[in-house]
Amino acid sequence: MPPSLSDRLTESILGIIREGGLRPGDAIPSARELAKRFAITTPTVREALRKLEATGAVEFRHGSGTYVGPTINNVVLANPHRPPITRESVLQLISARLVIEPVVAAQSAVARQPENLDRLEAAVTNALVPPGGPAFALNFHVELAAASGNPLLQEVLASLLKVRVREQQQIRALYDNRERDHEEHQAIVEAVRAQDAVRAERLTREHLDNIRQAVESAPEFS
Amino acid sequence: MPPSLSDRLTESILGIIREGGLRPGDAIPSARELAKRFAITTPTVREALRKLEATGAVEFRHGSGTYVGPTINNVVLANPHRPPITRESVLQLISARLVIEPVVAAQSAVARQPENLDRLEAAVTNALVPPGGPAFALNFHVELAAASGNPLLQEVLASLLKVRVREQQQIRALYDNRERDHEEHQAIVEAVRAQDAVRAERLTREHLDNIRQAVESAPEFS
DNA sequence: TTGGCTAAGTGATTTAGTCAGTTTGTGAGT
DNA sequence: ACTCACAAACTGACTAAATCACTTAGCCAA
User: Fold this and answer.
1) Rounded (10°) CA dihedral A174, A176, A181, A182
2) Please, are residues A105 and A188 in contact by the beta-carbon 8 Å criterion?
3) A196-218 pLDDT tens trace
4) Which chain A positions have a beta carbon within 8 Å of B4's beta carbon?
């Protein structure tokens, strides 16, 4: 089964982006322009662009243009069409994080890189901004993975945590533990800064265990 | 900015699939049927379906129909539009796996579940089938994660390893270590079966370290 | 300088149709 | 009764030519 025209088109458009050295935020040629260039019609171009949109490779801005998306260089992604959250899936998520995050924290402690530590600090302080604040607040757990120096680990954690944002408000409404979170985050940062991998790992495990207990003790949510 | 018609449409189609209890492989209504049902036109429906196709939520079969895809219930995905492989990205991948997989193996050892162990055994033996064999061969490392009992860990590993298939042939051509792999896989399985988490973790780390050394000592590839 | 208007460019969607595969059932031939 | 060939009927793939909606930039007047 030969790849469809739409498939080849997505590859061609990605080629335009990559060979052109375009980065997230840059504009790509308009749909009409692409249609003319490939000698096809606009609906076909739009199908290809929609596929790229689904994976965050491009973004549409009505009336303005089409732009390179933030996750075009990602290797793994959070499924934008993932199933709705259930209590079970939340606990599964925390279990998975309990396996992965402590060793990632340990890795960050040994691979300490000054510039990433700064971002980690910022994430800790951002955590105390009131809800409704800027949406681009750094996420502590994602930055903790970023401090490992391996962008893949950051992607994995970011993808896993994107699931959470849907229900973040619900959980916070049930159990607002932001102050406690903040203290525990700060302790982890100190361990990472001290390059104490064992302590960073233990503190992260305890931190996530606390979160799990909070969720387990919370009543049902939709 | 209100969600576009296309966005709402993808959600509606997902609703049809989920409320209808459809599972991967099942057929969904034809594009014309969906267009009629939502009182819109087929190009619009196709855009929405293409978005779902990009994430593996649906699959097209020309002349036959549209079907529910294999990854519709995934939380994380391998980016189908990921950037081309480089030597650096391969080493990054192995580094990330070196962080994650050993603890996952340890988790599988403690969470031992008989039925998953059977699949793990099958994956080990499948590894020796000659190249060109069935494409649906179980992957040892994915099944090792599946044995942890947490489907999220399986998804993460499967997504990370999907990157590898593109270059798998290249690596194998440069350094065919299937027999050695097989021995090491078998040793890991035995540790898991014995519920020896510490040994499973150590063996997995050593195994990945060997792979890393093989890649590092290999000459450049495109 | 500021404000509002306008025109060009862009995405969003429609309408109507053709082409190209797949599936299924029917009927002729055995 | 069985089998094979073939013809609908259904499906996705794509085209063609518009119109609507939104954004941006420029211009002009207050």
Assistant:
1) 160
2) yes
3) 999 999 999 999 999 899 888 87
4) 60, 62
